[in-house]
Amino acid sequence: MPILRDGPEDAFATILLAHGAGAPMDSAAMNGITGVLVGVGFCVARFEFLYMASRRQGVRKPPPKAELLQDEYRKAVDELGATGPLIIGGKSMGGRVASMIADAHFADGRIAGLLCLGYPFHPPAKPQQLRTAHLAELKTPTLICQGTRDPFGTQGEVSSYDLSDQIEILWLNDGDHDLKPRKKVSGFSTADHLNSVARTAETWSRRIIVT
User: Fold this and answer.
1) In the prediction, which pLDDT does 211 show?
2) What is the pLDDT of residues 153-181, one digit of tens each?
3) Distance (Å, rounded) from C-alpha 184 to C-alpha 83?
4) pTM higher than 0.85 for the full model?
5) What angle do CA 7, 206, 82 make, to 5 degrees?
6) What is each CA distance from 189 to 152, 172, 174, in whole angstroms?
């Protein structure tokens, strides 16, 4: 399983990120978030699920159900072999898969937390199909970075959900599923929001990491 690593090997923490359903680990969005996280001192590792990796050989496969990707995420944790504090997570579907395996790894002391970037609380235009049942009892310290107009879960929708008190949410004004705002509407740029994610993730990580 190829793993991309960026940032210092002696970083105070490593973040393992999985991609979303439709774009690879080196997409513009993944590159952007990696850059800002490295900029505040993280080591960032990225991997691809097999269906996405196969697309590099011209074999286009649809993403499996998130539940079927849990073993691949566990394998990535094993192969990464982080020796210092580890946070797992990802963009959209990648973060959702990470959230499904997080508590077992947290209980075993293998991870310190969970970072989700644009969590897919429900499919677009289907707010009744919630993907939140396991989030109500989540025991892993979690940071979700979410755009207020994300079609997978707006601020108004998410505020009504039953979520664990271990979950903190950074709301990004007017951000979409890629955390991108409309600058003329919000006054913020994508760079502004990514920098907010990085700063918040650093502060949160240093707070939750037990030294």
Assistant:
1) 56
2) 999 999 999 999 999 999 999 999 999 99
3) 44
4) yes
5) 45
6) 21, 11, 10
